[in-house]
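step=encode ok
step=design start
structure_in=
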């Protein structure tokens, strides 16, 4: 049966440095160049942790007890179904966002969407883009575990696995152990991009309409739209998009987009961009790669794999549950990049030496403190304020609470 694969204990690195992954991968799916790079990087991860321990830091975080975030298609059917149940549970919990500010938040899941909408500038400027989304995903994962009894951790999507045939993949096949399928065909003009023609938009694919299969086919999207790319979405009763606007979940699982996030692009991003500003700009597709048919940048290319409403809306995109898979992958990419030279990269923050750098946010961030590591990330009703530095190291950050790896 599809997805009912056998499991094998990874022992690729055992003998070289005496440690092995405690979770399994799907043996039917070959490793790509980024998977292999991550495996080769694990000795550096261990060395970094050893140094932290000797300095009295990250005392309770080891590779043996670290939480493990897996790629969706490496998880068992039961584990995937448990995750789906937890997301559906969160969508039934009462909201905590203040009703006077977010009347359209119908449940706890919507609370996170509202946070992304109202904190767009703080979440997306160069200084905060990486750590703020790490924080955002982490507290979402905590909500799934603490409020809905989920026993696992936030999965991610390895973009390369969805380039050739995403529709029959374990992520999009529409089964009870999937994150639902594509939307029905509803033509639209594609997704605008900041490049000259003919690369000024990502072409539409075969969806764009309501999702009709899988666990989220009856999901109600309430907040937004605020920056939709698909047609015929009813306007929100409030200009800020925070009113209640019930409608279906729409998707365009877009192969034209994800082609720009193949493993070769990600591998090049990690291995050929040694300073954080170069890494950040290339991550966002800046400057445009000449003569490249898929110049979107890994971030946008992965993001619009799940285009539609609200997944293709810059502000409301966490309204598609797959948003967290996308930013889980981006968090993984940042982590692998950091671990190539953790001494120099853990606390490297983009935007400090590039006054003309690309700003992914729609608003400017608040004024910076003298030490950028003292910048505050505040997710409002979703999670309280903390110093940016607390989110730079996933192995011992957040006052020692955070401790996870990707496999």
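sequence_out=
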């Amino acid at each position: 049966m599809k997805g009912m694969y056998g499991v094998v204990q990874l022992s690729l690195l055992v003998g070289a440095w005496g440690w092995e992954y405690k979770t399994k991968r799907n043996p039917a799916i070959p490793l790509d160049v980024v998977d292999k790079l991550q495996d080769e990087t694990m000795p550096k991860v261990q060395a970094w942790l050893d140094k932290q321990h000797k300095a009295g830091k990250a005392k309770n975080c080891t590779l043996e007890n670290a939480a493990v975030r897996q790629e969706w298609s490496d998880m068992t059917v039961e584990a995937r179904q448990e995750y789906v149940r937890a997301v559906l549970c969160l969508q039934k919990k009462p909201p905590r966002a203040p009703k006077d500010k977010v009347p359209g938040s119908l449940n706890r899941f919507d609370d996170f969407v509202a946070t992304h909408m109202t904190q767009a500038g703080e979440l997306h400027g160069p200084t905060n883009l990486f750590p703020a989304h790490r924080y955002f995903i982490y507290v979402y994962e905590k909500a799934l575990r603490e409020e809905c009894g989920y026993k696992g951790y936030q999965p991610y999507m390895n973009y390369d696995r969805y380039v050739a045939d995403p529709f029959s993949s374990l992520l999009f096949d529409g089964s009870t152990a999937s994150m639902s399928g594509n939307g029905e065909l509803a033509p639209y003009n594609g997704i605008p991009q900041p490049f000259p023609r003919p690369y000024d938009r990502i072409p539409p694919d075969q969806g764009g309409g309501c999702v009709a299969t899988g666990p989220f086919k009856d999901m109600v999207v309430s907040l937004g739209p605020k920056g939709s790319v698909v047609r015929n979405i009813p306007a929100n009763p409030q200009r800020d998009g925070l009113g209640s606007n019930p409608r279906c979940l729409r998707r365009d699982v877009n192969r034209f987009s994800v082609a720009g996030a193949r493993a070769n692009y990600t591998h090049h991003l990690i291995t050929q961009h040694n300073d954080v500003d170069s890494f950040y700009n290339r991550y966002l597709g800046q400057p445009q790669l000449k003569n490249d048919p898929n110049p979107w940048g890994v971030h946008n290319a992965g993001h619009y794999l799940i285009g539609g409403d609200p997944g293709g809306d810059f502000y409301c995109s966490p309204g598609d549950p797959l948003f967290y898979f996308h930013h889980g992958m981006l968090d993984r990419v940042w982590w692998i990049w950091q671990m190539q030279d953790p001494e120099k990269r853990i606390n490297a923050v983009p935007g400090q030496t590039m006054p003309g750098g690309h700003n992914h946010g729609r608003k400017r961030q608040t004024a910076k403190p003298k030490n950028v590591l003292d910048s505050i990330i505040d997710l409002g009703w979703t999670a309280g304020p903390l110093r940016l530095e607390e989110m730079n190291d996933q192995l011992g950050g957040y006052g020692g609470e955070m401790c996870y790896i990707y496999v």
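step=design ok
step=annotate ok -> The CA atoms of residues 257 and 301 lie 5 Å apart.
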